[in-house]
Amino acid sequence: MPTRDGRDGVTAGRSGPDTVSRVCAALLASLPRADQRRRGELYVRGLLTASGRKTMRNLAAVADDPAAAQSMHHFISCSTWDWVAVRAALAGHLDRILSPRAWVVRSMLVPKTGRHSIGVERRYVPALGETVNSQQSYGLWLSSETAAAPVNWQLSLGKDWLQGDRARASVPADEDATSDGAAVQAVLKAAAWGIGPRPVVMDARHSALSPLVEAFTLAGLPFLLRIHGGCTLLAAGSGLRQNRVAAASAEHLLSRTRVQRRPVEWIDPASPGARRTSLVTPLRVFWPGLAGHCPPGPPGQARPAARAPAPGLPLTLLGKWQTYERGVRQMWLTNMTDAGYGPLLRLSKLTRRVETDFSYVSLDVGIRDFEGRSYQGWHRHVTLASVAHALRMSGGGGG
């Protein structure tokens, strides 16, 4: 199992080369040829041990073979092996050893100077408040309180890539992962692999919320989405007007529940052992347009004739304050309406676990370092970087 390296509790084990060989043999078993499996293991070893950026030249230096850089480039960008099968095997492996509590979706932005790398375009980045020439993708992470690792990736491709540049970058004809759909596709494709479904947790403040809520609802997946204060929701009235609903912003709705806040203690996943306290309150709300997906009542129980139909999908809006703060610090929306607000708050904190492991593990194994131009090359690189992340996290980072 992982060991602690002292960096806010991030796991980064260092065991011998046998672990790398054993795990690679299992996760790369779907590669049809023995030479492909050997190159796959060599690439993973390079990601684990090469210093600096994980360029083909630096990765090849691990092999001590002048021709290795060219063969690795061909293996990543021009070969025919299926990265989806490797990701499915990785997801099954991590589902067993991590016992994850959530599937966390995280956006990965990579600023670029040129325009030729796959998916690169000028896009406005709300978190930065400026337009950046960049590549954007979404990773699906399996996360527990002690460790997190990515298992699936989806590129965000703009119209230029899906139309004029599709053939040049070898983008498949059926690929249609625009910005709004990339996060959804990262989740739904992984859900088809047969691993145990977990709540989908995502910071969606800068995303189009409707595609996420509707897609996860139709797929039958529980979700917990961080939203911005201006998000419009429906809420029931009070007193004699309780059968009526009104539309209001999430921040306004939660401001009316401030007196109902309750303290919840949680252990910080980014710093295990650190106990923190937040003030939390839940509020029943509705998402308009999905009333047909409301959970049914008890079998055989007729709906009262005078009862108005549900105005939309029943959800819980969770507000979180820091002690002594007046304004709401975070707002989360979930379809897990029977869950307690304490468990929901703790579940939301798993995004901190992912941020920590992305910074100290994924970046270290070169998740953002692919420099090629092809769609296939990018997907194969981030797949093997995810394998390297899993090895480093679980104690197989040496060799």
What is the end-to-end distance? 17 Å
**Biggest pleated-sheet summary:** 10 strands, mixed
The tally of strands reads 12
Rg calculated over all Cα atoms? 23 Å
- Using the alpha-carbon principal axes, give the shape: globular
Percentage of β-strand residues: 15-25%
Low-confidence stretches: 1-15, 295-308
The chain-level structural class is: alpha+beta
Annotation field: number of helices: 12
Percentage of residues assigned to helices: 25-40%
SSE string, helix = H, strand = E?
HHHHHEEEEHHEHEEEHEEEEHHH
Overall mean confidence score, pLDDT: 85
Would you give an account of this structure?
This protein is of the alpha+beta class. It has a domain at 223-353. Helix content is 34%, strand content 23%. The protein contains 12 helices and 12 strands. It has helices at residues 17-27, 34-49, 56-63, 68-78, 83-98, 159-162, 179-191, 209-218, 250-255, 341-348, 350-362, 375-394; strands at residues 102-111, 121-125, 130-143, 148-155, 200-203, 223-227, 232-236, 245-249, 262-267, 275-288, 312-321, 330-334. The strands form 2 sheets. Strands 1, 2, 3, 4, 5, 6, 9, 10, 11 and 12 form a 10-stranded mixed sheet that branches. It has a two-stranded antiparallel sheet with strand order 7-8. The protein starts with 16 loop residues before the first helix and ends in a 5-residue tail after the last helix. The model is unreliable at 1-15 and 295-308 (pLDDT under 50).
